[in-house]
């Protein structure tokens, strides 16, 4: 393997290493800007998921007879779960590394003056992005990729059943990941070719958000079909025709020799779709690299403001409106901020879509449960603390100096504007999603009480996140690697789930009694008011800061003073030994 890599051109190998470290943003995601460490953490999590899946398969007990209805239902359910889960991870990785395959201004300005061919840059970027996708597929199926073919191969008609199932399994996962990756590249490439550069910069942000929602929506909303009769039912025809996970499910069974003949059209659709997206990705990428690379120097990474009259919503006074709109545009127009906030948005969308699927599958009203309360508390807490962590990532130095030189109001007004930003961009959207999800729950009195409690919790979370935060969002320069998105993400996911479960345990009996509900509302309102008074009092004497400075560290050199007498015999007396000198 090492000899094969050394046989590649030196320029390609150097570019591949650099682009691989830049597939995931160095500054916003990695601890201390250490991408190999971040990729190792990412791979270890996927390996753990794979081991849990393989262990669950081994603990499932004895398998039913081959070709029986129970066996087919169990196998088809597992195959659809594994294929759709792999496509979900590949889709999220592809969407997170949205612009990694296309050249940016830094690539053009640094690499174009060098004696490099455009195709060398193209192949190096494609190889780096494909390596990350391959790492995700390999680690997510590290254990299940062996356990599942063993389970299926034991019931195969051929003596080589395991090898056939093993090859079919891994080939299907690789081509399904390639399908999603090439689909995103095709959409991005043709949009960059057909649209002017300025319009494409704005449209690309909405494409990324739409692709993110589409990947999550398909995974959580599509049904699981476990019988031939259900597969051939007319009501499910449109689901099978529109869902790529069912196409590759049929492709796997075709390669494994277990696909019923009425479903041959699904496997054919998988081959046709794969051919179309691979052809589209190759053509669009070549055209982009040879026609649009020079245009990237002419336009900045952020979209220039539109000229002419335009209307903007009001969110309070002029300062509050300016900071809220600045934060909204930073999240939409900046790739780094969309990338960082996408981690927290993934949790919120996943929880919401899972409850949408539950409500669609229920025949009537659903009684209010502790699980729903826990989910809504986790959603609103993730929205607040996730947005608060993204605030530390600056957008540009121009915004830093502009707001620093125009600071003519007291500090408490800037803190109030940051509070308004968190309420508008985090609490209100999460609360509205929770309110829409609660329409199918009964009784209405308990649902209304829970929504009031949820709004007060969101206010309390905002006040907690403002303690010690005396700067304007996205304007304070920071030290590389301080955001720690992956650490904050998993810590919050664990701690807030526990907090949501404890809150639901106390909230559920309180909602059944109007008096206890009023008392709980008064306690939360008093807590929020106390935190608000505390933050307002501290903000009056606070000073806004716009620069993150590294702490000054005192390093001890451990120097020892030796006298001539002790230097000769190699020993040091207690009187001749001086304390270490600090510099």
How many runs of DSSP E, i.e. beta strands? Answer: 2
Instruction: Kindly give the count of domains.
Output: 3
| Helix percentage range | over 70%
Radius of gyration: 28 Å
User: Could you give the order of the helices and strands?
Assistant: HHHHHHHHHHHHHHHHHEHHHEHHHH
Share in β-strands: under 5%
Explain this structure to me?
- This protein has 583 residues and is mainly α.
- The protein folds into three domains: 16-55 and 67-298, no CATH class; 318-540, no CATH class; 555-583, no CATH class.
- The protein contains 24 helices and two strands.
- It has helices at 2-6, 10-22, 26-29, 35-58, 69-96, 105-111, 118-140, 144-153, 161-194, 197-221, 228-231, 237-242, 244-256, 264-291, 295-298, 318-333, 335-361, 370-390, 397-405, 411-437, 444-465, 485-511, 514-540, 564-569; strands spanning 366-367, 441-442.
- The protein has a two-stranded parallel ribbon.
- α4 runs parallel beside α7 (118-140), α7 (118-140) packs across α9 and α21 (444-465) packs parallel to α23.
- The longest helix is centred in the first third of the chain and has 34 residues, at 161-194.
- It starts with a helix and ends in a 14-residue tail after the last helix.
Keywords:
single chain, 70% helix, mainly alpha, two-stranded parallel ribbon, 2 strands, 24 helices, disordered C terminus, 3 domains, 583 residues, globular
């Amino acid at each position: 393997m090492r000899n094969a890599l050394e046989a590649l051109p030196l320029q390609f190998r150097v570019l591949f290493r650099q682009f691989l470290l830049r597939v995931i943003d160095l500054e916003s995601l990695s601890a201390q800007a250490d991408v190999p460490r971040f990729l190792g953490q990412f791979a270890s999590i996927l390996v753990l998921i794979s081991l849990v899946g393989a262990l669950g398969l081994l603990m499932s007990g004895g398998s039913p007879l081959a070709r029986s209805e129970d066996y087919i239902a169990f196998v088809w359910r597992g195959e659809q779960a594994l294929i759709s889960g792999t496509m979900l991870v590949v889709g999220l990785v592809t969407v997170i590394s949205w612009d990694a395959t296309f050249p940016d201004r830094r690539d053009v300005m640094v690499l174009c003056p060098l004696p490099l061919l455009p195709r060398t840059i193209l192949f190096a970027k494609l190889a780096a992005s494909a390596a990350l996708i391959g790492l995700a597929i390999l680690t997510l199926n590290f254990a299940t990729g062996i356990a599942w073919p063993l389970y299926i191969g034991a019931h195969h008609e051929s003596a080589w059943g395991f090898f056939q199932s093993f090859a079919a399994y891994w080939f299907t996962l690789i081509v399904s990941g390639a399908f999603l990756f090439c689909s995103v590249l095709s959409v991005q490439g043709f949009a960059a070719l057909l649209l002017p550069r300025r319009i494409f910069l704005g449209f690309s942000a909405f494409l990324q958000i739409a692709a993110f929602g589409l990947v999550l929506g398909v995974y959580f909303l599509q049904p699981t079909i476990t019988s031939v009769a259900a597969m051939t039912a007319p009501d499910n025809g449109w689901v099978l025709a529109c869902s790529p996970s069912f196409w590759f499910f049929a492709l796997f069974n075709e390669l494994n020799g277990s696909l019923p003949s009425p479903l041959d059209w699904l496997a054919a659709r998988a081959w046709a779709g794969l051919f179309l997206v691979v052809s589209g990705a190759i053509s669009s990428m070549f055209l982009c690299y040879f026609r649009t690379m020079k245009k990237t120097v002419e336009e900045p990474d952020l979209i220039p403001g539109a000229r002419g009259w335009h209307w903007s919503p009001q969110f309070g006074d002029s300062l509050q409106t300016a900071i809220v709109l600045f934060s909204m545009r930073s999240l939409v127009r900046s790739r780094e901020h969309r990338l960082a906030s996408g981690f927290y948005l993934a949790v919120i969308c996943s929880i919401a879509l899972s409850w949408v699927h539950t409500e669609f599958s229920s025949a009537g009203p659903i009684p209010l449960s502790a699980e729903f309360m826990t989910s809504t508390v986790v959603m609103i807490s993730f929205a607040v603390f996730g947005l608060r962590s993204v605030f530390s990532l600056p957008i540009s130095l121009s915004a830093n100096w502009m707001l620093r030189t125009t600071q003519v109001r007291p500090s408490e007004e800037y803190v109030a504007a940051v509070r308004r930003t968190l309420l508008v961009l985090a609490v209100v959207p999460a609360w509205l999603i929770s309110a829409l999800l609660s329409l199918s729950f009964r009784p209405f009195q308990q649902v209304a009480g829970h929504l009031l409690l949820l709004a007060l919790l969101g206010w309390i979370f905002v006040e907690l996140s403002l303690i010690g935060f005396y700067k304007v969002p996205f304007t304070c320069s920071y030290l590389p690697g301080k955001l720690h998105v992956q650490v904050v993400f998993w810590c919050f996911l664990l701690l807030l789930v526990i907090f949501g479960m404890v809150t639901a345990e106390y909230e559920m009996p309180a909602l059944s009694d109007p008096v206890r509900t009023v008392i709980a509302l008064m306690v939360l309102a008093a807590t929020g008011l106390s935190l608000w008074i505390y933050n307002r009092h501290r903000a009056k004497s606070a000073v806004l800061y716009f620069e993150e400075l590294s702490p000054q560290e005192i390093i001890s050199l451990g120097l020892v003073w030796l006298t001539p007498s002790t230097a000769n015999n190699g020993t040091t007396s207690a009187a001749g030994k001086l304390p270490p000198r600090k510099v």
